[in-house]
Amino acid sequence: MIQSIDHLIVTVNDLDAAILSYTKVLGLEPSWKGVHEDLGTSNALFVMDNIYLELLAADGSEGLGSAMVKATLELNGEGLSGLVLGTENVVKVRENLLKKSSEIKELSYGTGFDSFQGLKRTWKNLFLPFSLTRGLFAFVIEHESEKLPFKIPQASSVNKLDHVVINTNDPDGLIDLYRDTFGIRLALDQTIEKWGGRMLFFRLNQTTLEVIGKPDAEEPVDKLWGLAWTVKDLHATYERLQEQGVDVTPVKEGRKDKTLVCTIKSDTCGVPTLFIQHLS
Q: For strand 79-86 and strand 138-143, is the pairing parallel, antiparallel, or unpaired?
């Protein structure tokens, strides 16, 4: 039913400033800078091998999207705010989800314009109710346009998403949603006695939904937390980031065998960010 994590949304106050920051961090120019005229928002898209990252801001006009961005910024500040799941048949996804929840809405139709490149994109969305996603903003998308233009990266650029981290207080309920309802493969379900919780890995389109589960007696809540990006040469990436004034920790061995990691401490618009190189 769900084929991919299509993209992730970072809500920002100042789109131009966020573009400058993420261009430095990712080592990539945005492939798209555009507007959603009917929503009152503007965005920039950074395309990687297996996903794209969307920076989203209110553009000063009125619209449902503008109101949502402003409310999100007022409540949480800048940060990781949305998970978008990709499908080849959003109508079928809607039919299946109606068996799970009576709150599933009708499809919506989106259009984006990039006036700099003279391009237009269209898509169909299915926004998911918070009662289903347990408070996490998410929707399903089916693209109707060709793939986004791809900017050739530098050797030290990010090339794909390694994993996105979700925190939950109800791991069993999350499994019911992501594995049993969305059809995403559960590759790992492990109890971590040291911190009294569970770690879940859901895998699709060469990336991982990494879930940190710490059960409690409260209402089930799922929250996006942070991102880990893959690079091919972490030492070269580290040197580039230092030259560009990004605050980054020294390269060290990762917890996983045959990996190197470093943490990005600035220019991420509030998103906890790890870079990782797989050595084999």
A: parallel
- Reported as type and span, the H/E element at residue 135 is none
Q: Which two tokens stand for residue 136?
A: 């996490």
Separation CA 189–CA 194 (nearest Å): 15
In order, the DSSP letters of 144-209 are -SPPPP-PPPPTTSEEEEEEEEEEES-HHHHHIIIIIIT--EEEEEEEETTTTEEEEEEEETTEEE
pTM of the model: 0.96
29, two tokens = 């120019």
Interval 16-41: pLDDT, tens: 999 999 999 999 999 999 999 889 99
Q: Looking at the predicted structure, is the pLDDT value of residue 46 above 90?
A: yes
Measured between alpha carbons, how far is 5 from 79 in angstroms, rounded to an integer?
18
**Which residues, 6+ apart, have CB-to-CB distance to 146 below 8 Å?**
none
H helix or E strand, kind and range, residue 98? helix 90-98
Distance of alpha carbon 274 from alpha carbon 58, whole angstroms: 27
Q: What is the pLDDT of residue 158?
A: 97
Averaged over 145-163, what is the pLDDT? 88
Q: Which two tokens stand for residue 128?
A: 């998911």
Q: CA 24, 26, 27, 29: dihedral to nearest 10 degrees?
A: -90
Locate 16 and state its tokens.
């131009």
Measured CA to CA in angstroms, residue 252 lies from 242, 257, 275, 278 at distances of 16, 12, 11, 12
> Pick the residue with more confidence: 9 or 118?
9
